[in-house]
């Protein structure tokens, strides 16, 4: 990365990734390549995470990481499963299935949940390659991976921990690895923003500007109101030129997930008949899905969110989940909200509460380079 791009980049080039690792201090949760999708969904839900490093046992019986699987990889393998087509033909309910069809659905579900993790690794762009950075590298290298390469998480080899290992420990085993995400670097930058010794002009350029200026970076994209999850269109562009995929509240959760996948977005805005924002559906809402809960995907999306979200609780989807802002909000305030609420994005609405875009972690990171 060209560290002369901005004063902040120059500051970050003098800080090692090790500093982030020392502050994070979390145990790495990983999964074996032969584990099932069912196990992966269970771990993602249990540890409230979005991705799992995947390892295999090499010839020396030592863990060797081969990639990172995310909830998005699992989503890509869920929404077009054959058993949903079978249920669709019976008015979207298992109760309406013939016994023969029911047995077929059960069989297909079993096959799906027993798919091995290694068989879906690489289904999305981000999991097709496995990248590792060293903790001795600078933060600008990490920032480059998150921006230039559009990754959301990177495996890090902890050089300091490796150097301080006991003599009888194996070299480069999995215990010397950790994972860093966009959230980690944003939290670090935001919490240390007053320590970077930036000029007032540079500080204001990064933190005290309206988010609309960062959203300008998205103008190459389009606005899409997804009427049919099987037909993707990108010809409708709002006056801001921002892409925001919306789905109607009567859509089934399954169809909403299809829209999410087909449009290659991480979340969709759920709107009512007036086009007002009423809920948010992201790939993370698929975590914890079990055989017993698969039929829930056939519910209207709002009902699905109320029923399946233990964090929000019944009848609390709207007030607890949706945090929206207007595009004249300052970056610093929006980041503070995202960090405190552990959000990866916030929806941007107009004065009628109609979604006109979103502000994401990636948007902020792109503004730094």
From TrEMBL:
<dbReference type="InterPro" id="IPR050511">
    <property type="entry name" value="AMPK_gamma/SDS23_families"/>
</dbReference>
<protein>
    <recommendedName>
        <fullName>CBS domain-containing protein</fullName>
    </recommendedName>
</protein>
<feature type="domain" description="CBS">
    <location>
        <begin position="24"/>
        <end position="86"/>
    </location>
</feature>
<keyword id="KW-0677">Repeat</keyword>
<dbReference type="InterPro" id="IPR046342">
    <property type="entry name" value="CBS_dom_sf"/>
</dbReference>
<dbReference type="Pfam" id="PF00571">
    <property type="entry name" value="CBS"/>
</dbReference>
<dbReference type="InterPro" id="IPR000644">
    <property type="entry name" value="CBS_dom"/>
</dbReference>
<keyword id="KW-0129">CBS domain</keyword>
<feature type="domain" description="CBS">
    <location>
        <begin position="317"/>
        <end position="369"/>
    </location>
</feature>
